[in-house]
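Dear colleagues,

As part of the handover before I leave the project, I'm documenting each prediction I ran so the next person doesn't have to rerun anything. This entry is a single chain, and its sequence is reproduced below.
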Amino acid sequence: MKRIASLFSGLEKAGTHAEDALLLIILVSMILLAGTQIFLRNFFDSSLFWGDEMLRLMVLWLTIAGGLAASRMDKHISIAVVDRFLPDKAQLVTKVIIDLFTASICALFAWHSARFVMGSYEYGDVLMRVVPAWTMQIILPVGFALMAFRHLILAITRPLNSVKQLPEGSTRS
C-alpha cells in the first residue's frame, strides 16, 4: 500500500513540476515575444506576422495552466460568505458540494471544448497561416478535464483528510 502511495506522490510531484515549468515557459515566451514585437514596430516599422496571434494563443494557454495550478492548490476564486458562520461539519459538506459542482462544470466545459476542437480539426482550421488550429486549442478540453478530475479528487479526499485530522481519542458525532 505504501508503494502505491509513494507512486502517486511521485506522479503528483512530477505533474506539479510540469505545470510550473509550463507556466514559466509560457510567461517568459510571452514577455520575449511581446518585447520583440514592440522593438520591431518601434525601430523597424515591421513585426512578426504571426506574433499577435501567437500572443493571444499564449494568453489562452497561460490562463488554462494558471487555472490548473490554482485548482491544484485549491486556491481558485471563491466567495465564502456563509462558510465562516457554519460549524466545521457543515463547512466540510458545503466544500464537498462546491467541489462536485465545480467538477461537473469543468467536465461540461471539457466536453464542449472537445467538440469545438474536433470541429476545428474536421474543418481544417489553420492559425498563423500554417499551424492546424486544433493543436493550439487542445489545451481547452485537456485543461478543463484535468480541473474536473482535480475537483472530483478534492471532493473525495476532503472528508478522508478531515477524519485523519481528528485528535486521538475523539469520536465523530
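The first helix runs from residue 2 to 44. The chain has a mean pLDDT of 88.

All the best with the project,
I.
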